């Protein structure tokens, strides 16, 4: 039986509009429907916005949190995976075979990889640099991560079908439990209905509809 997916409508924007200014993002629908099914406590507000044109998918996370943890050991996969970050996963099919993961911390460091069922990760795979741009900023109340992905690359990976993408939208929040340890809180747009936190599962995905 086909899974009924949550939907987010990605509005179309004319190419002539200046990218990433305040008026640009006002044209986007604001997604705030996040949850942390495995935690009882509250978490900071998250807003996600997406827009597109005939060449590009644009996205922006706004996270209203100023107590942000970054592992500064180095620029490695391991260091980013221990840091506060936001994430977009894109799947080719319901079997998540394969799917593509884009994880970005508040310093705009990128952890991108190709994945297969049961957390089988190909960490050598990277999004082509010419097809992905990410930047970050922060102020007194929040941090933002925004970027753009070429539609050419999404189509080449078989991720756009009938103006639709199947996407997971996530956040990892690391909270200090002592001087040396941090415990993650896992936050998701779609509740995967698992006993333990797991974004790497088909039930964690929703649907992005590209509206013309």
Automatic annotation (TrEMBL):
Query: Which Gene3D superfamilies does this chain map to?
Result: 2.60.40.1190
Which InterPro entries does the UniProt record give? Carb-bd_dom_fam9 (IPR010502)
Q: What GO MF terms are annotated?
A: carbohydrate binding; hydrolase activity, hydrolyzing O-glycosyl compounds
Could you name the domain of life of the organism this protein comes from? Bacteria
SUPFAM superfamilies the UniProt entry points to: CBD9-like
* Carbohydrate-binding domain mapped to chain residues: 23-211
Biological process according to GO: carbohydrate catabolic process
Kindly provide the name given to this protein in its UniProt entry.
Answer: Carbohydrate-binding family 9-like protein
Instruction: State the organism named in the record.
Output: Flavobacterium flavipigmentatum
């Amino acid at each position: 039986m086909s899974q009924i997916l949550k939907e987010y409508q990605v509005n179309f924007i004319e190419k002539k509009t200046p990218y990433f200014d305040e008026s640009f993002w006002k044209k986007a629908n604001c997604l705030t429907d996040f949850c942390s099914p495995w935690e009882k406590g509250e978490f900071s507000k998250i807003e996600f916005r997406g827009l597109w044109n005939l060449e590009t998918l644009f996205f922006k996370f706004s996270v209203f949190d100023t107590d942000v943890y970054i592992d500064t050991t180095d620029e490695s996969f391991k260091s980013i995976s221990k840091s506060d970050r936001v994430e977009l996963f894109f799947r080719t099919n319901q079997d998540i075979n394969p799917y593509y993961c884009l994880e970005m911390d508040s310093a705009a460091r990128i952890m991108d990889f190709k994945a297969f069922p049961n957390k089988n990760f190909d960490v050598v795979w990277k999004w082509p640099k010419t097809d992905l741009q990410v930047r970050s900023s922060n102020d007194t109340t929040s941090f933002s991560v925004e970027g753009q992905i070429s539609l050419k690359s999404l189509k080449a990976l078989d991720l756009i079908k009938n103006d639709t993408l199947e996407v997971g939208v996530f956040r990892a929040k690391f909270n200090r439990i002592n001087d040396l340890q941090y415990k993650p809180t896992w936050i998701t747009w779609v509740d995967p209905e698992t006993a333990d936190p797991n974004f790497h599962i088909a039930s964690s995905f929703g649907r992005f509809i590209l509206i013309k």
